[in-house]
Amino acid sequence: MKSLLIVESPAKVKTLSKFLGKDFTIKASIGHVKDLPRKELGVDVENNFTPTYIAIEGKEKVLKELKKAAKDVDKIFLGPDPDREGEAIAWHIAEELSGDSDKVLRVEFNEITERAVTEAIKHPRKINKSLVDAQQARRVLDRLVGYKLSPLLWKKVQRGLSAGRVQSVALRLVVDREREIGAFKSEEYWSITAALEGKEPPPFNAKLSQINGQKADIRKESEAAGIVKNLEGKTFLVKKIEISKKKRSPAPPFITSTLQQEASRKLRFNAKKTMLIAQNLYEGLEVGDEGSIGLITYMRTDSVRVASEAQQEAKDFIIKQFGNDYAPQKPPVYKSKKSAQEAHEAIRPTSVIRTPQSIKNYLTKDQYQLYSLAWNRFIASQMSPALLEQTSIDIAAKSRDIGEAEKYMFRATGTVVKFPGFMSLYTESADAAAEEEETLPVLNEGDVLKIITITPKQHFTQPPPRYTEATLVKELEAKGIGRPSTYASILSTIQQREYTEKLEGKFKPTELGVVVNDLLVERFPELMDIGFTAKMEDNLDKIEEGLSKWAKVVKDFYTPFDKDLKEATKLLGKVKPEDIPTDEKCEKCGKPMVIKWGRHGRFMACSGYPECKNAKPLASQESGAGGQQSETEIQLTDEKCPKCGSPMVLKSGRFGKFLACSKYPECKTTKPIGMGIKCPEDGGEIVEKRTKRGKVFFSCGNYPKCKFATWYKPIAKSCPKCGAGILVEKRTKKEEVLACIKKDCGYKEELQPASSEQAAVTA
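Request: output the structure for the sequence above.
Response:
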């Protein structure tokens, strides 16, 4: 009996062919085959929001091949990714092949391994229409917002802008945080630290914790100085020692959001890069004699559930490698959040036997790092808790007069790991740096301590920090904005639209972003309401569960949205950022120069416009290696100058970002920023450059020795057809695809993070 299996990615075809015999033909849809039309709304608002789906441009050939392959088989198994988006792809393919007949069946595999695939083939199911409806509702909602709202921004702000139902709310978080920072009033406070020594080493520090039984609150230098003076001649006496035992449990295995957060913190990967690499690990890579094999489970998940077989395998491995004490008697159980899709598993290695070190030679550096992170996190999640002993020492500062009240109390704390448990392998990173734990000597109550120094120190309260990729993903998840498949796209979109920029790895809204955000918040309060957006995600979940009708959910959203849109179109005038006056005089007419805002950002212009049309870039924009640049625009890197050995810094010039020696002007060394992708011609590193007109292109870092260059952004992904080392992002009016760098190859795939719900943020 002949069967046809259709999956999304060509990369899976190779892996799956190894597991399934000659009775199976395996084809790839290369993502979606049908979608709403690009140049029109494609949603009949008057007819229950009925969508019109057409074959995606360039997918006619794929559909033709799938139909041809389907003719001569007895069964058609549809195996797109196990999520809403994958279900919709399966539905569209089924419609194109033979409708909803018994011949067409849906299969799901959470991992690309022989066991998982053969088991899925044995247990197929019908297409889940509720899942399809949930995806359809999201697609229609986002098309309505993007198609209807973006023209308003074109008219009222600037051509070429866009808005999206989810991306705009993420932008609001960034803008609101920036305003919190701007409104923050820093307050001075002081700490007093005593460096002390007992009978036995080591010396240690204790901080002033109480004054007259109240928490120490020192606001002025004079107060601090007075306390230090009062402490002169005091005896420091160990008053109380408390020892408490604590149990620290491991973090659960990764879900999409925590993988992105930890990869950002530990590996400095952005969310998009993390998901691209995870996709490669999931779909399958060549691993020695094993051939092509999927290394991790499906990477778009919000469930921390782990299959019992995987837990048993992990337990056996832990006992063998670490000992019985490191494996808990019962497998640990982690609780997913309420809205999690429990049909999915957490992100884990498909086999713990494939340790990172054992397959290192078959992976790229980035693949190895991310696989190691996922492997370590999973194994640690199945290990015994760590046992800690925390010691707190209260120290009284008093005169030798026995009757004197204990006015000043100091405290020292330290933690000793009595049993490392999971900590011997992995500990979770924190978003903020924690204070170092003190190593305390052996002390007894009543011990008199020797004073080494007493040091006052000035501090200032700090505003809330700007969001990093890790903290923004964490915030989106906490507030219920988006879903696992959308986080990377959200973060990528708000940067691509130039609504935000990154300063020292943190999101800062651009002036354009602030203008767009404020307009949307004022005129579309419901759309921009964080709680409303989270509720919409819950409504989509209810559609998936069969508890709500998708068309009603869309209608309930669209009715007030359309009203707001009509009012905004009618009432709003042109919106743009205000000009910022400067002290600089126009060299042509002598009038003050102002900082204006244009399509490509801020620039200097004469306030006498239009009589005087003098304009020029801002100093920070035109500076090269020797230009002036503000401290916030310069970012220190780990790279060393090849000439003098000083740290290199990241700078922005008229041709884009570049590395420059921090010792300028003594050392004028500069170099382009590498992308970590090898040149297909000479193996050098590809770098991003700009033409004199500001157009971005990509070339070999070994220029002029190597003349390789392309207008299209390279991606570190091998061509499944010819094996070329890189693909390129091609974005034209006709198509948006990943294409092989070799023109004669002709390989193309839809430009999207596999089955991600990219529609949620593209509008």
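Confidence is low (pLDDT under 50) at residues 620-634, 753-763.
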